[in-house]
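Researcher: Let's run the pair from yesterday's discussion. Sequence first, then tokens, for each.
Model: Starting with the first of the pair.
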Amino acid sequence: MKLDSIRLRLVAMGAAAVLGSLAVAAIGLDYLFERHVRRLAIVELSSDLDQLTAGLTQTENGLALVRPPSDGRYRQPLSGRYWQIDTPQGPLTSRSLWDATIAMPEDAPRDGHPHEHLLPGPDGDLLLVLERTVFAPSRFGPEGVRILVALRNGQLETAAHAFVRDLAPYLGLLCLFLTVAGWLQVHVGLRPLSDVGGRIAAIRSGTAARLGDRFPAEVRPLAAEVDALIEAREAETNRARSRAGDLAHGLKTPLQALIGEADGLRASGAGAEADGIEEIAAAMRRHVDRELARARIAASAPTAVSSPTTVIARLMSVIRRTEDGARLDWIIDADPHIRTRIDGDDLTEALGALLENAARHAATRVSVLVLRDGLIAEIRIEDDGPGIPEARLDDLTRRGTRLDMAGPGTGLGLAIAREIAEAAGGGIHLANRHPGLRVILSVPISNLTAS
């Protein structure tokens, strides 16, 4: 994927969004799990606080704890779990506090409900403290007692962070899964645009005529606009062809009149003047034919299609009636299933010039073979005439060299035939045979149906 592709942008943005979302989720899970662990710790500390309250009793020597909590951590020095009871005779502490005490704030609540604090512990760590002040004059005396249990707060944070660390590989897998899913979503979502590009390429290559409407609803208006543009271009092509025909008719008639005037001058004895007029008129006519053919080629539609077999049959019905065509043996071998990506009138122009040239120079026989070579259709025209001098043949096959070998009145000639073939994506190749000349007109194959 290219850096400037829509697909890469969408995938990159989706991956960034997934990564950011999972990072935020990890932070949120860390916070929520820490709160959950804290609530569980408060529940556990509250249970221990109730045990301390229930186990405290008045003795002859003052208050004493007869039933301490059973958790062994209260007996392990500096374990992080502590309890303390502030009595008028002095504090009672868990063995885990060793010789230290927890300094409680002076504003002791007197409502009897547990209260939470974050206070420094004996080893400098913060403690989560749950404390309660109990007033029971008959049992604890008139001043009451202050009971607290504590847990090292860092243990809660460590548990929460450990949870996130354990969760990290699964978040990574989830990130990978969501990124791949996003890529698949983008790939499937943008596939219609690739299909549009493929259909346009098919139209350019002549294998399709329109985009059609077999697209999702979001892409269908684009396809309809492209098809409308193609239709408008074909309509303009037809108008261009009509204008070319009108121009040909408008120019050739005056030129023919000039030739008639030249015949009149020759009859009156002005032969030199008549030859000059005829030469100029013939040159003008060749230029008109060449430019009109180029105009038609430029206006050709990319979806044009024709059948070489049909074109050859139509041309042979005319050539066989000419003087040159009637004296020859014509051998036609054409595959009727081949369709070429070229307008039928343009193919008629090109093949007409080549067949007329072969008929004029052949001795006894002309063969026409139409075959398929991959994606190219080859139309081979071979005659048994004298051929072309090798030096001249090199000139004729060089690009940009004038190829019009025909005399006046023979139509477009090889030059226009080559231009027609090259405009369609093919070309012309000439080679001497012994005897005769072989001309190969190549044009691309079309998968469309010829009209």
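Model: Moving on to the second of the pair.
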Amino acid sequence: MITTIDHRDESTAKAIQSIQRPAYRIEAELMGFDGIPHITETVEEIQQSSEIFLGFMDGYLKGFISYKEQDGIVDIYRLVVDPIQFRQGIARQLVDQLLHEKKAAEFIVSTGTANTPARKLYESFGFKEEETFEVADGVTCTQFRLTA
């Protein structure tokens, strides 16, 4: 079940952190870059986030998506699935839920250019590559946009 989760709650923030760290470590390996901020994010930093979180709950938190919305644009900040739950359609369900729940004019998201699974997922929903930008020496991210 996908529902809004309260990341300000300490136990929820700990659950977010517990799946976020290993998931972002995998992306870091794909990118050849270990400087992804979410790998070292503390529980307190998660609790202080101004993002809105939707969680995939099935006995426990198996994945989540977070976003901010402003001026008709939904900016996806995180899409995380517990690595032991990879390839079960959880990320697809989270993106689908957000797209149906928010009737925004536009959605934007950035991911590591080398993160082929994430790129393919967003492209399958109709997101179009907009720009590539360097986040560290030789390491790039790609921004995607979906216009309603």
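Researcher: Give me one sentence on the second I can quote.
Model: Strands lie at 2-5, 52-57, 61-70, 73-81, 106-112, 128-136, 139-147.
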